[in-house]
Amino acid sequence: MTDHNHQFWSRLDDINSGMLGVTSDPRLVPMSHYADRKAGVLWFITAKGTDLANSVAQGAQPAIHVVSDGGQGLYARIHGQLSLSDNAAKLDELWNAVASSWFEDGRQDPDVQLLRLDLTEAEVWATGGKVSFLYQIAKSKITGDKPDMGDHYSLTF
């Protein structure tokens, strides 16, 4: 039997980005996420004044993060509460070369803003990845059976 919670977090750890937005605005934007399994949180580094930062400036808002990665075999719609965070220690922990390329003064840039997505639920499709997909399609052509595309489940955090 598959431990769906473990499967979700393990595969999410190997995916770098997804599309993030607040549910009151249909526009999602590409964002790199940093998963904190123990806390049930996804962290994002953005700039002050972005639409996302402005949308949660007055407090947490319902949000969605969508990931799609055929190589890792994970497709998920993740819901939670998005808020601003001034957690300097967490920002120091997450800071990396990718984040620094977006900010002229690096980690000390006054425009750096940390976002926190406290997860509430996720709908997940977990497949075997690209090789498994090709195998399942070929097998279905030979046997006439429908391909087994993996697990589909929901998680509550």
Automatic annotation (TrEMBL):
Residue spans crossing the bilayer: none
Alphabetized Pfam families for the sequence: Pyrid_ox_like
InterPro entries from the UniProt entry: Split_barrel_FMN-bd, Stress-Dev_Protein, YdaG_split_barrel_FMN-bd
Residue ranges of domain General stress protein FMN-binding split barrel in the record: 3-148
Domain of life: Bacteria
Name of the featured protein: General stress protein
